[in-house]
Amino acid sequence: MKAKCFILLFVTTLSLQLFAGDMEYYFWKGKINGSDVKLACAVKDGVMTGEMFEDNVEYEAIYNVAGYETDGMYDIRIYNDNDGVNFMYFMRCEIKGGDLIGITQPNGNKVKMKKFKDKYASPINREPGMYSSPYIEGKNFRMEGWDRGGRYLYENPMHVKGELTLWGSMNDDSYTLSIRRDSGPYNGGNDALVDASGLFLPDNGNFEYTIPYCGYTFSVKFYDHFLVIRSLFGPPSGCFGSGAAITGIYILEPAKG
Fold it and tell me: Tens digit of pLDDT for each residue in 219-230?
């Protein structure tokens, strides 16, 4: 009996440790396209959130960081949302030996940011399950975020742009989803369109949707200041124009006023 109790206690303790340890925190220092920068980030379940700081500027945060893992690499957006959403850098990187290594897109410049400890920064893991800015008090990014709707903007290195809007009805608690993705600056028109109304969403907002006429299924998962669309089942061919897709990171448009 004692042995069984010990095993149960060991398994329970191990499970709690694994659960508590599923968030990793990083400080990285290096250059992006020739600029000296520092990144402070949290990573959980293949999703990255945090901030980029310019060096020698008294650690004033000027950019946000959002990324997600796909095919073993992180697709990263670094952007400014002080006045709308302005995409500054696109990167394709991996975390290797604690360092962040990859390229900026579309120019292919190398990125190698070394992991380091900043003794002047407050810990970025002072609140469990949350990224807390090490330099700006009260600036936090949770690893989930759902405020019942909004407008999220997409852009990729080739300047293909898009948006996702999700709005709820106060009458019956149903939602209308709209996704638009253009074909880039050199080809006019819309290549990827999704319209759905009458959606009933769970409390956390995360959902899956199948486009009825082509059977393509994708997921939408919300984080504190962005969302990620991933493919689940079926190819998007037959739903959208040639080579078009809706997957990727969409950044929440800041509220006006």
Answer: 999 999 999 999
Instruction: For 4-41, write each residue's pLDDT tens digit.
Output: 443 343 333 333 233 334 889 999 999 998 888 999 99
Q: Which helix (H) or strand (E) holds 14?
A: helix 2-20
Q: How far is CA 236 from CA 87, 154, 171, 206, 212, in A?
A: 26, 18, 33, 20, 12
| More confident: 85 or 185 | 85
157 Cβ partners below 8 Å, 6+ apart?
A: 90, 105, 106
Q: How far apart are CA 244 and CA 154, in angstroms?
A: 13
Buried b (16+ CB within 10 A) or exposed e, 117-127: ebeeeeebeee
Chain centroid to CA 118: how far? 24
Q: 5: which residues sit within 8 A by CB, 6+ positions away? A: none
| Separation in Å, CA 233 to CA 65, 215, 218, 230 | 28, 8, 7, 10
3-state secondary structure of 17: helix
Cβ neighbours around 227 below 10 Å, total: 23
User: How far apart (Å, rounded) are the C-alpha atoms in residues 145 and 171?
Assistant: 23
Structure pTM?
0.86
| Gap between the Cα atoms of 105 and 157, Å rounded | 6
pLDDT at 112 over 70: yes
